Amino acid sequence: VALKSTITSYQQNVVRSGRTPWWQRFYLDVFAFAIGIVLFYRVGLYGSIIGGSDTNPELDLLLVLAPLSLLLGTAAIFLRVFPVFLRTSANFASRGRGLPVVLALRQASRHPGHVSRLVLYLMLAMALGLFSTSLDATLTKNEVDRSSYYVGSDLRAVADPADLVTENLPGILGHSWIWRADAALITSEVPPRIDLLAVDTRTFSDVSRFREDFATRPVAELLDQLSADWEENRMPLPATALPGEPAQIGLWFSLPFAMQVDPERDEMLASIAFEARLHPARGDDFVVRLVPIELTDDPNTRWFYFQGDVPELTPDRYPLSLVSLWFHSSALKLGDFDVIWMDDITVVDRNEQTANVIESFESSDPYVWHSVTYPMRVFGLRSHPHSGESSLAISFDAAGISRIRWYGINRLNDLALQPIPALVSPEFLARTELQVGELVRIKIKVPGGHEWDPVTFKILGRVDYFPTLYEAQDAGFLVTLREPLFEQINLYRYAPLQSNELLIRSADATATHRTLLESGFFADQVISAETILSELRTNPLAIGLRSVTLFGYFLTTALSLVGFGTHFYLSTRQRAANYTILRALGLSPGQLYLSLFLEQVIFMLAGLALGTVLGIMLNQLTLSGLPLRLGELDTIPPFSVQTDWILIFRVYLVLSLAFLLSLGMAILFLWRLRIHRTLRIGEE
User: Using CB atoms within 10 A of its CB, is residue 83 exposed (0-12), middle (13-18) or buried (19+)?
Assistant: First the structure.
């Protein structure tokens, strides 16, 4: 080539080559960019780079290529448009005043291909630096979110209220009792299972944390709406109201006619006990044991009075209601057609000491009271009253009466109970094909019970995520109010239902956790968010991602620094003849070095700007679906991409200072070579 050209034309060809790279001639950069766009669209459809089924998730390698293809395609497109950008900028700058800026842009636009690869290095360094900082911030935020979501608060204790006194725990800032149970849809086929969680809305929001993406509306607002809807549409329980402040409650009881002269009558009467389930205006239900007051050997005495003391309560818990009555006997022997009788439920006022009959069983409807325990049956009968004309007859089917079981009666018609407002998951709505505002009837498996209790709920809203709940069941999950649910389920139960988990918010979770373990709780009964967070932070995949991205950032930064410094020095020495002409035309040394400096700064700013765009794009593509799991649980809540602008500013600052230092050292080296004093054309 040199033999066919003059010295001047050869040097022009060295500094300005007009041949387009082969990959641009075949439009491979456009093809790579198009593939990246298509794969990016596919990621948007799938929502994550994780494919497969819920039980067998797999990393979709094709989707993994989406960010890489788009990153390289965008960078290649940049190399195509970068010369146009430089020429346009040079033309625009030539209209103004000042030679160094114009000279720098003209020199850069003469042949940007030499520095395009270096700008690409810088662009990748910035993109990886931004990705590395955002990855660390995103992982850190998600680790905290996932541990808090899994536990529900700082600590979660699996315990009964009677076993745990929160006042004795150190550092307590708040606590909230919850109840967790299995439930199922009522269908004619195999019922789809549901995870049910009942919360106390007055305290739950104070101890738990919600993210904005848990629902379309703030979760705390939805919980308040549950309470407001319940109170607004509140229907009284089908219970018997107790006037005033009762001190005692009692009832009259009679054995079957044939047993009035039975030799074992006194033994059977002594073995009989009643319990009255009372419901206060606030707080949990409680029971009062009723025992016989006076037994007599007189065979003509057919009615016996059973009475129990009602504990004195705070004023805000009155008035009381009689929810149900429970009967038990360890010695009573009933035949197939034997009937026992009950009449005149009475209360004694604590202040006035007057007795009032609250239920005389004189209703015209014989089926006002119902049995809640098989095989007992109850019905009002105008026969054998203690007073008035009617009493309540109690009989048993062929299965007979058990000596260890309690039998209950109440005035309940569960279909007439007020529907309890609830929040449900998307999977629940999809499985039931219901809409917000509709009613749904499900059955609940109460711990310790042999049957499923049916309850009607009103769907008041949808939540995509709720602390401690996952879409692990066939029909998702349901969140409802604790006290209304207990109120209705306790109508069927002998032992009042109690909360089974406690969420604790603590100023010193470690000390609180240690105190719980020292008080007798087993390690698996107390779940700590700090422990879960430690497990997540030691996840090998998370550690590997942090290390690889940080190493890639350091590597590309080092290559960029070395490449820019070396290129700057060699290209300046190579273009010494041009600088000699400019010096001869009157360019000052300061203007010469300023133009050299600005030329490199233009490359640096272009690399940083485009690297920032690519870094943000890479974050959004990959960080929202990282395949990091906690045991068998899904990545819930999903990754919320975080951009730590303070750390990104430090990346900008470090890269800028490093490049300025590199350029400064190169300029100093050129100054010491006195390149600005070169006078002869071509001298180096």
Answer: middle
Q: Are 307 and 293 in contact (CB under 8 A)?
A: yes
Q: Which of 18-32, 512-526, 616-630 has the highest mean pLDDT?
A: 512-526
- Whether the bond between 311 and the residue before it is cis, its omega within 30 degrees of 0, is no
- Cα separation, 412 vs 493, in Å, equals 12
For residue 77, which amino acid is it? I
pLDDT tens string 186-216? 887 888 999 999 999 999 999 999 988 899 9
Residues 638 and 140: beta-carbon distance below 8 Å: no
The overall pTM is greater than 0.85: no
8-state DSSP, 641: -
Q: Specify the length of the chain in residues.
A: 684
User: Reduced to 3 states, what is the DSSP secondary structure of residue 102?
Assistant: helix
Percent of the chain exceeding pLDDT 70 equals 76
Retrieve residue 64's tokens: 């993994």
What is d(CA 108, CA 116) in angstroms, rounded to the nearest whole number?
10
Interatomic CA distance for residues 492 and 276, integer angstroms? 13
H/E element holding 289? strand 286-292
Please report, for residues 328, 329, 336, 373, 407, the alpha-carbon distance to residue 401 in angstroms, rounded to integers and kept in the order given: 9, 9, 10, 11, 9
Phi/psi for 451 (5° steps) reads -125, 165
